Write a sequence for this structure.
């Protein structure tokens, strides 16, 4: 029953958000696409000019490129596996009747509120440091040689740190979904003699499926652009061993000032994110209809 | 709960959950403990009982002017949140109360802007900031953080506002309330909890944002994320001081976070999980 007046009022109220987001999305993106076709070096502008697709070719032929894509995917997939499986197990555990459930929840969710540079520094120095870290203390206690995490297993170390940050998020959301499961249904299944495993597979898991989808999609968005954790711990090294796509783009743009190549990398990152976004939008959109 | 829970079952569940929870919390706990050690103690191997000195805290402040970064963090997170609310409340309001065919598309599109990797637009943004003199300015970063979180803010507010029953509005209108009275006396009281939750979550997100805050600042506008990142350089490695700085950086938001668990689920899943 909206009148013409309220409709135009609604449009007027929406305008600032829409215009701001539109400008924020479109202007820098156009710049990036334009730059990706240029040779553009602010420090050495002699050869600057339009070069068509050679930036993409250069970026593509750079061995670091393939490595960075591979690292990006390794990071996303490993962290997703750890957090989703770990999150389901943890949610099931915390959902049990126990003493001090509120405090357990608070302890488990805490890492999510730690800013990425702090998380990375704490793990780098307090936990994984080959000399003074807790892991080294434990290794020495058992008479083993402490592991140089960031020198020898940089990707594993970063995966552990990022998984630690996101496990709480997965747990909290899956726990919320779990707690909305109808108690009567559970009881009915129990009375029918369904064991824990079959109850989990036929009742709990289907009930949690939407929450699991949401966890995967949202985490993927954030995991595709992990940055501070790498900057603070390995700085992408040794070599390119722990460089992901965002970090490579950052290096090209702000350290080497190869803006054209960095922009080509940026455009590739946008394409990668859009593939993910396509699926994410459909899942969230479906939910909105409900 | 209808079914009987054996004490044994409960004891085992309690023990297991507490062990796992403490393991997950351990890095934070150990950082807090280490912050109360002297530098000597901090590198003498595993030790859970600090001597309880506040030395590192005063040194962090004296050496690096910690308070300035803290103040920037507060200004940026609160400022960007208020800006985002100012822009988002009218939008979410109109989408929730007078939806059109395109409302859903607009919401989806807003969310999609969130999916653009920040790094892809790093250089253009850097150029724009440099050429407009916004680099290392609080205002510039505030606007930046506002734009980053605006989709989430609109979405969260939208899901809250949608739950306010429209009949109440109609009833108020029938009673002859003007639009202004309607907003002040009917809607605002019902909308305040949702707005507060949105604000809380958004402050947390802005506080922890660690890409633009690091890249677009040097000294003047640098918040705690940038301050902490500077500790990764080799000469900055003093375990107790590092721990004190880390503790100070996460404590306020950790406490806020504990109070906003439920809103977090709702906000970060765009209302898909409540």
């Amino acid at each position: 029953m909206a009148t013409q007046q309220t409709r135009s009022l609604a449009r007027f109220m929406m305008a600032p958000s829409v215009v701001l987001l539109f400008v924020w999305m479109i202007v820098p993106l156009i710049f990036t696409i334009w730059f990706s076709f240029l040779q553009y070096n602010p420090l050495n502008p002699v050869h600057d000019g339009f070069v068509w697709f050679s930036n993409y070719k250069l970026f593509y032929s750079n061995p670091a490129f393939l490595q960075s894509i591979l690292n990006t995917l390794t990071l996303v997939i490993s962290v997703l596996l750890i957090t989703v499986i770990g999150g389901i197990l943890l949610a099931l555990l915390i959902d049990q009747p126990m003493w001090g459930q509120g405090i357990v929840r608070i302890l488990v969710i805490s890492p999510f509120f730690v800013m990425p540079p702090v998380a990375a520094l704490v793990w780098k120095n307090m936990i994984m440091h080959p000399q003074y870290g807790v892991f080294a203390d434990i290794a020495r206690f058992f008479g083993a040689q402490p592991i140089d995490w960031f020198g020898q297993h940089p990707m594993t170390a970063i995966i552990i740190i990022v998984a630690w940050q996101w496990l709480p998020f997965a747990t909290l959301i899956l726990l919320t979904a779990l707690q909305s499961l109808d108690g009567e249904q559970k009881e009915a299944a129990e009375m029918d003699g369904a064991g824990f495993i079959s109850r989990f597979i036929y009742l709990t898991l289907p009930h949690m499926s939407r929450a699991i989808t949401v966890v995967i999609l949202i985490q993927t968005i954030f995991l595709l652009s992990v940055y501070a954790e790498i900057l603070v711990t390995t700085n992408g090294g040794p070599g390119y061993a722990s460089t992901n796509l965002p970090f490579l783009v950052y290096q090209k743009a702000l350290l080497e000032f190869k803006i054209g190549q960095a922009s080509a990398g940026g455009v590739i990152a946008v394409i990668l994110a859009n593939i993910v976004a396509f699926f994410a939008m459909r899942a969230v959109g479906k939910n909105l209809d409900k | 709960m209808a079914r009987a829970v054996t004490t044994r079952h409960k004891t085992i569940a309690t023990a297991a959950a507490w062990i796992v929870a403490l393991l997950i919390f351990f890095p934070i706990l150990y950082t807090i403990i280490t912050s109360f050690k002297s530098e000597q103690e901090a590198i003498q191997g595993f030790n859970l009982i600090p001597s309880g000195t506040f030395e590192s805290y005063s040194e962090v402040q004296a050496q690096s002017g910690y308070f300035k970064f803290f103040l920037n963090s507060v200004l940026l997170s609160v400022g960007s949140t208020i800006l985002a609310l100012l822009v988002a409340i009218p939008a979410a309001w109109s989408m929730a109360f007078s939806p059109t065919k395109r409302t859903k598309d607009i919401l989806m599109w807003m969310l999609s802007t969130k999916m653009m990797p920040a790094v892809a637009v790093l250089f253009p943004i850097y150029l724009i900031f440099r050429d407009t003199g916004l680099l290392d300015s609080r205002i510039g970063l505030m606007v930046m953080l506002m734009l980053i979180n605006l989709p989430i803010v609109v979405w969260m507010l939208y899901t809250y506002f949608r739950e306010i029953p429209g009949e109440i509005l109609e009833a108020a209108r029938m009673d002859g309330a003007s639009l202004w009275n309607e907003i002040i006396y009917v809607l605002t009281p019902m909308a305040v909890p949702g707005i507060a939750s949105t604000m809380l979550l958004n402050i947390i997100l802005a506080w922890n944002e660690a890409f633009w805050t690091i890249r677009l600042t040097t000294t003047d506008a640098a918040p705690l994320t940038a301050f902490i990142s500077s500790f990764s350089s080799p000469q900055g490695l003093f375990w107790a001081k590092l721990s004190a700085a880390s503790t100070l950086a996460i404590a306020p938001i950790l406490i806020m976070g504990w109070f906003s668990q439920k809103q977090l689920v709702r906000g970060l899943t765009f209302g898909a999980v409540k």
The mean pLDDT of chain B is 82. Chain B touches chain A through 97 residues (CB under 8 Å).
